[in-house]
From TrEMBL:
This is Sorbitol dehydrogenase. It comes from the Bacteria. Its cofactor is Zn(2+). The keyword NADP does not apply. PANTHER family: L-THREONINE 3-DEHYDROGENASE. Keywords: Metal-binding, Oxidoreductase, Zinc. The keyword Chloroplast does not apply. GO terms for molecular function: oxidoreductase activity; zinc ion binding. It comes from Aerophobetes bacterium. InterPro entries: ADH-like_C, ADH-like_N, ADH_Zn_CS, ER, GroES-like_sf, NAD(P)-bd_dom_sf, Zn_alcohol_dh.
Length: 346
């Protein structure tokens, strides 16, 4: 079969290769024909040899959907023809305190598709049933390729962040994670403000269409942002900040606009260390929350939201055949597209 493979450590060294088609070897596994797979920022990092977690040679990609074509003898919930979406988790130790408490996203020995195990930029994939979820019939394969980032946001915004109806929530960074977090905050009854830069004009326009109460270009409208927050909060500051980008300066902005007693959740991974005003955290009784990946409970909450139309992923997508992967990676890296989805069979 055809697959997009990172061949070895270093810049580039990625190409489409003929590799062995995977087969079921365990009774609890399912084999899937991959229909669509999204390009994540970490895939771009792997292309350039910058991510320390990947173990080449490895088939890339960890956000993908497909159709079941074979099942092991112990698989009961899925059958041939089932439409499915995958968690990126391939295996865990099962014994550490995190695995035992259901927080396997924090397992130090977790195997992740596209990093330490074969990923989804391929024609077929084999996974254990426990990491495969049914894709709602109303959701296309291409839209479903964003289920993984949606589960990431669900874990951060709905499971780790206290958001109440009427809260003012600032979402910093209008990329895939920011635009999905915005919709989750909106579905929770909050008033979302989405903040971006001059490079994000089209993304800010989309944020407005997806339900943001306000969108702000911080490069040109910093005083406008201050005025909006002052009017909405009587000068107190926003209730919640969701950090969705990796620009270190965004952290200081988020702390500055957060009210006393407010909650800051960081999803995006910073490109370098940031300084933190620890005294302000104490004086203002701020809560700082990190969020990493997703787990089963987040998937179980995310998929019904997508099925009910409370979250719309399709407007974020630009789809290409996998044969045009180089074009897709360039579009993702240069922000010509919000989320590029590759179709292996095309």
């Amino acid at each position: 079969m055809k697959a997009l493979v990172k061949l070895e450590v270093g810049e580039g060294k990625v190409s489409i290769k003929d590799v062995d088609e995977p087969q079921i070897t365990r009774e609890d596994e399912v084999k899937i024909k991959v229909k669509a797979a999204g390009i994540c920022g970490t895939d771009v990092e792997i292309l350039h040899g910058k991510d320390a977690l990947f173990r080449p040679p490895v088939i890339m990609g960890h956000e993908f959907t497909g159709e079941v074509v074979d099942v092991g003898d112990r698989v009961k919930e899925l059958k041939v023809g089932s439409r499915v979406v995958f968690e990126p988790t391939v295996g865990i130790c099962g014994d550490c305190r995190y695995c035992r408490s259901g927080r396997y996203n924090l397992c130090s020995n977790r195997l992740i598709a596209g990093f330490s195990a074969p990923g989804g930029f391929s024609e077929y994939a084999v996974r254990r049933q426990r990491y495969v979820h049914k894709l709602p019939n109303k959701v296309s394969y291409i839209a479903g390729a964003l289920c993984e980032p949606l589960a990431v946001c669900t874990h951060a915004v709905l499971e780790l962040t206290p958001i109440y109806p009427g809260d003012i929530v600032a979402v910093i960074g209008p990329g895939t994670i920011g635009l999905l977090s915005l919709q989750l905050a909106k579905a929770s009854g909050a008033c979302p403000i989405v903040i971006g830069t001059s490079k994000d004009k089209l993304r800010l326009d989309l944020a407005k269409r997806l339900g943001a109460e306000y969108v702000v270009n911080i490069d040109e409208e910093k005083e406008t942002l201050s005025g909006i927050i002052k009017d909405l909060t009587e000068g107190c500051g926003v209730d919640v900040v969701i950090g969705c980008c990796g620009a270190p300066e965004s952290f200081g902005l988020g702390i500055d606009i957060l009210r006393k007693g407010g909650h800051y959740t960081q999803i995006g991974l910073f490109t370098r260390d940031v300084s933190f005003p620890i005294d302000k955290m104490s004086y203002h009784e701020l809560t700082l929350q990190g969020s990493f990946g997703q787990k089963n409970s987040a998937w179980n909450r995310a998929l019904p939201l997508l099925e009910k139309g409370l979250v719309d992923t399709l407007p974020l997508v630009t789809s290409l055949p996998m044969s045009k992967w180089e074009e897709g990676f360039k579009m993702a890296e240069t922000k010509q597209a919000i989320k590029v989805v590759l179709e292996p069979g095309e």
